[in-house]
Design brief:
ten-stranded mixed β-sheet, single chain, Jelly Rolls, 4 helices, 12% helix, mainly beta, seven-stranded antiparallel β-sheet
Length: 264
């Protein structure tokens, strides 16, 4: 199939030596630079292309917090952007969330752009979560795509007010009922993945939740993956929220825009 594809695209058969092991052709020498370039050209033309974004609905209108439940003392809309802000002398009593009230997605994709700035900052995207009015209004419990100003935790899968750290940045983790999560593989080196995250600038976050599998991406790079077989602890559907973390003496500004959701 590879050979037929190469012939259709007009590439020399030698390109195969860059795609298949040289032993398959009885060759002992490595491919030349020209053959490597030809292979790269082939892969760009015949490989899997970026997927066109379809089926997403906008869940933030850019003009107001309609459809969201947020503490107005900390959340506002400014220039088409949802803004959550704290100051050293103006902090919530605990971590709070701006909660989307449009449903409890189960299998979905979530995309948004965010920018976190300040002297210190911690935020995240909450999903498949529940509200905890027994603690206070705007408090949530559940999965979180973690975000922090110093990129120590950004990209990891955390569970707010429950099982805690589930998959660190770079990890593929597995958890079963009554057990602690364990790493079963890597999606990349944590420091290398960190280099793809922009400081004090806009980042694109992408969350995929399908069945018991969660995948989190930032700027097109997979940051962490979780396979959750903990039937007692996991949630298969729930609310979405954006976190504003209690950080005494810190000034933090979390900005979010272009928020969209695709349900399956």
């Amino acid at each position: 199939m590879v050979l037929r594809s190469i012939k259709r695209l007009g590439f020399p058969v030698a390109v195969l030596t860059c795609i298949l092991p040289v032993s398959a052709f009885g060759q002992k020498s490595a491919p030349s630079e020209a053959e490597k370039r030809a292979a790269r050209d082939f892969m760009q033309k015949a490989g899997v292309k970026p997927l066109e974004e379809t089926g997403f609905q906008t869940i933030f209108n850019g003009n107001s917090l309609e459809g969201w439940d947020c503490d107005p003392a900390f959340w506002r809309v400014e220039g088409g952007v949802m803004v959550g802000e704290t100051k050293p002398n103006h902090q919530p009593k605990q971590n709070i969330f701006c909660v989307w009230k449009g449903g409890e997605p189960a299998d979905f994709e979530f995309k948004a752009q965010y920018r976190l700035t300040g002297t210190n900052g911690n935020s995240g995207i909450q999903y498949r979560s529940i509200e905890r009015p027994d603690i206070a209004r705007w408090v949530m419990q559940g999965y979180q795509a973690d975000i922090d100003l110093h990129q120590m935790f950004t990209g990891q899968i955390y569970e707010e007010r429950a099982r805690g750290f589930l998959a660190m940045r770079g990890q593929i983790s597995y958890v079963s009922t009554g057990k602690k999560p364990g790493s079963i593989g890597q999606v990349g080196d944590s420091d290398q993945l960190k280099s793809f995250i922009k400081d004090d600038d806009w980042n694109e976050i992408h969350i995929i939740a399908r069945g018991n599998t969660l995948i989190q991406l930032i700027n097109g790079h997979v940051m962490s993956t979780l396979i959750d077989d903990d039937t007692a602890g996991r949630k298969m559907k729930g609310e979405i929220g954006i976190q504003l973390h209690l950080l005494p003496d810190a000034a933090m500004k979390m900005e979010v825009k272009n928020i969209r959701l695709k349900n399956f």
